[in-house]
């Protein structure tokens, strides 16, 4: 069968239509089963081997359907599983990665021909800083970083104002 299909494909070229490929596949499988049946002299054993070959070839589909039905039933019994929450480290890392990616997208958009640079420059307060950002400089200044750290860093003003009061401190 292999040599026959190779000769046909070599002569006429490979099949490209999906229906033709399926038709050839089924024809070769049926011809192989017929040759297997006719090649064994004890007909009950030949029939049993043909049935075993047929079942093992097509057993994947019913098993796949049964497994999918089992998973659907199991998920309906158990309900939806709760989403996994990020750890603080994963959250911080994802924030840094996404911020970096978004800033690069913004830079590339600002460099693109669709971006109206004159309209943007006329509306912003610091055009030099914007030009530096588009050129690759940081989007925050050192002064802004130090103010942020002072207010929101460890021991910052924001955390002290919003820290929970312990019951012992009230007494």
Automatic annotation (TrEMBL):
GO cellular component: nuclear inner membrane
Keyword terms of this UniProt record: Membrane, Nucleus, Signal, Transmembrane, Transmembrane helix
InterPro entries: NEMP_fam
Organism of origin: Melopsittacus undulatus (Budgerigar)
Protein name per its UniProtKB record: Uncharacterized protein
Cellular localisation: Nucleus inner membrane
Membrane topology annotation: Multi-pass membrane protein
A matching Pfam family: NEMP
Primary location class: nucleus
Protein family according to the UniProt entry: Belongs to the NEMP family.
